[in-house]
Amino acid sequence: MADAAGSTAAAPPAVAGGVTAPRGFQAGSVHCGIKAAASALDLTVLVCDAPASAAALFTTNLAQAAPVTVSRHHVERTGGAARAVVANSGCANACTGETGLLHARRMAEETAAALGCAPEQVLVASTGVIGVTLPIDRVVSGIRQAVGRLSHSGGAEAARAIMTTDPFPKEHAVRIDTARGSFTVGGMAKGSGMIEPNMATMLGFLTTDAQVPPALLRTALQTAARDTFNAITVDGECSTNDSLVALASGASGVSIDKDTYPALLEGLLAVSRELAVAIVRGGEGATKLIAVTVSGGQSVDDARRVARTIANSPLVKTAVHGADPNWGRIVAAAGRSGVVFDIGRMTVHVGGTLLFEHGLPHDEAAPRAAEHLQGRTVRIDVSLGAGGTASATIWTCDLSAEYVRINGEYRT
Amino acid sequence: MADAAGSTAAAPPAVAGGVTAPRGFQAGSVHCGIKAAASALDLTVLVCDAPASAAALFTTNLAQAAPVTVSRHHVERTGGAARAVVANSGCANACTGETGLLHARRMAEETAAALGCAPEQVLVASTGVIGVTLPIDRVVSGIRQAVGRLSHSGGAEAARAIMTTDPFPKEHAVRIDTARGSFTVGGMAKGSGMIEPNMATMLGFLTTDAQVPPALLRTALQTAARDTFNAITVDGECSTNDSLVALASGASGVSIDKDTYPALLEGLLAVSRELAVAIVRGGEGATKLIAVTVSGGQSVDDARRVARTIANSPLVKTAVHGADPNWGRIVAAAGRSGVVFDIGRMTVHVGGTLLFEHGLPHDEAAPRAAEHLQGRTVRIDVSLGAGGTASATIWTCDLSAEYVRINGEYRT
């Protein structure tokens, strides 16, 4: 059973190097002048030494940024092959019209020219302020500089170059051992800092040196994302730029087929879970990580829907912030989720302490639950008692006055 | 066209008296000892001099409080006839098991005994802390005292007796003139104060001296609620106790049929809108009322869904709190609502100032919109440009640090 932070006893061994830990990947990062601070990295190019399999998931928001439009198109055109990703921070290139599309295409073209590949083999990602046009000349010269700085140990700088106002960089890598040999999965991500108003976006980049056909990589990415990047919420907002990209270099020589697919999935899940949970920990104004696990559902969809409703409830999030073992708000959120179950069979545990069953509270247990809520990692476990065995976990953070301060400050 | 607060140029004339303004209604209110403060009214009985037509709408939350279960049953049993409503504040009688059901039935029985009617002719409502058992002996003696205090001018006290931590009482009444004569619609409501953790509930009570068959009253109540009580949100939470009751005494002699139905609806709408908007104004930590109007939708459901997503967006609500004309968050919220439209045809106005069209911002207009956002009533108007004429308005309030403080304080 996973603990609150999602790690399991059998988690694969972590290795250093982040997104460039797998063989065959290099990254180069620069400050090109999008961010004001002269020392702040704001552009990175992640390159595979040879054409890689590629899969990507994008925001479901209708208001999709120019880089999302362009990258989606490129993945379709190539059928899932890529040489590189170019990503900038500080400007989301969203709500920027035709000019924005030209700029996103230009980023792919310049990266392709510097690497000697087709523009369609380059994916583009941007994160930062919405509605502002990229300083494209600086970006172009930054791309050329970044390609000149490519390094097999460039992962750590790349993880910093995609940050906006994230409180810390997010990278992780694991080694997976199989009967056919070992391969590595690495990754980096940025969260929804949004400390500057209009900041957008979850970006995630996963790499592996396993050899994976594009279709299988896509299936694995979707499956891994479902219980990790798609199982987190800071404030229920889906941005204009959300992108998750996976690249497989094949450089380890370990080929993934039906037999080794579970090993690939294990690696993607381990890295994705670590990055996703780190995004929540670094959520705006967050002081606590909350793992909401709903079990006993008739389907995983039911369990996930109830967990998501609880995780997005401002009353639950403020109660956790105040270390209030407020089972009533958890029951009420579950009850309005749209999933049908019997409140009389429901149980609510906070930090392993039973607070509600048979439709009635266990008030005497409240002090023990309150003690658990003082910590930085909180577990809420709900059983629907709906006769099923399906379960799902959603990770969220508490809602603090700091969130309001961060997002309510007037844009300067 | 309605202004931001929802009133129209042709609004019917307001009259004094609140819920007892219509002929045939009396109310009696007491402090029976549920609330700690000795002077705080916490129980009211609203009585019709003769059996009235009754209609009621209840929470859709699966976790429904005992008074909701009992009232729902009574309305069904009588086919829409009632003599009285008994309501208490300070205790929601929710998550109280079998004991709670016995207590809710006892409240109806005691009120019926004091009035000389059947228990099924009494509806019950409670609001306050969840998971706490009613002090039923005090409630029973309170009911007897309240019936002894019945008065045709008891409306104002009744509106105070249903408050929990609402910052102000909410009552309203209007006179409707028809060719058949005049009738009156009155009402009172309480909002989601929730200053004490676990506080629950929107309660609304509407009265009229028009003569209305129960089925028609139910249709009118549903229609009026759709664009008023069901078109507001403070924090997207639907409680365990939400109840909206309408009683028609017929004492005016004005009968409602197909011809006069629009007049009844006008009266119910006018009172419901006033009360619903007052609930939002009195929302937890609210400093601004926000009217989100979405037009140009292909259906009213589409327009309402987009408006509701914008109104519940914590990023939009914090931006309004900070007087930030952040059109990007409005566009992003609309884009993730699940309704399909073309962002390129969408327009966003804040306080009548155009901030976004053709997929691009009008940054030069931001200072004028920011000025509008300094006020206490804010208008956000979105056109989807989806080739339709459907529109909908949702009222909400800003999200302040005070909301977090109120809901994050440890329960004592």
Q: How does this structure look, described?
A:
- Chain A has 412 residues and is an alpha+beta fold.
- Chain A folds into 2 domains: 18-281, L-amino peptidase D-ALA esterase/amidase; 289-408, ArgJ beta chain, C-terminal domain (Ubiquitin-like (UB roll)), CATH 3.10.20.340.
- In chain A, 32% of the residues lie in helices and 26% in strands.
- The first copy, chain A, is built from 11 helices and 15 strands.
- Chain A has helices at 66-78, 97-115, 136-148, 155-161, 214-226, 261-281, 300-312, 314-321, 327-335, 366-373, 401-408; strands at residues 25-30, 43-58, 81-91, 122-129, 170-178, 181-190, 203-208, 232-233, 243-248, 289-297, 347-350, 353-357, 360-361, 377-383, 390-397.
- In chain A, strands 1, 2, 3, 4, 5, 6, 7 and 9 form an 8-stranded mixed beta sheet that branches.
- In chain A, a hairpin with a 2-residue loop joins β12 and β13.
- In chain A, α7 (300-312) crosses α9 (327-335).
- Chain A is globular, with a radius of gyration of 22 Å.
- The termini of chain A are far apart.
- Residues 194-199 of chain A have low confidence and may be disordered.
- At the A-B interface, α8, α9, β13 and α11 of A face α8, α9, β14 and α11 of B.
